Amino acid sequence: MDARLNFLAAPTAGRALKHMMSAGKALKESPLPTATQELVALRVSQINGCAVCVDMHTKDAAAAGETSVRLNLVAAWREATVFTEAERAALALAEEGTRVADAAGGVSDEVWTHAAKHYDDEQLVALVFLISFMNLANRMNIITRQPAGAYQPGQFH
Fold this sequence. Notes:
This protein has helices spanning 11-28, 34-48, 51-63, 68-73, 85-98, 109-118, 121-143. It is mainly α.
């Protein structure tokens, strides 16, 4: 499969991607645990069907020490026993924050309250930005049919 656009060849894309990479770096440096960041990024990408981001975040998480069992169970996290309560709260927020069109109420008070029990305000800010950021990246990759499989861990960091 060939990509519809080469983001690296377009000046406008280059300028915008510079800011996106800066935002991504700020999120990586946030107090939200790295494992949680990768699990959330992976789950959002699974929901959206973004192969590029599934590839990237699976490989980055594995390179950071995440186990294959946990990575393989992200799609079925509700039934899995390998995630902490905090991670489960983050995954629930990621799902509702991604599926806003599927639920008239958006993110429920129950899901927000559960996340707020496990994360402080700074971590919640990082979670909200990460979920939003991943939805943006997923949509860009899906619209332009970016191919997956060639990503090397840490390639964009």
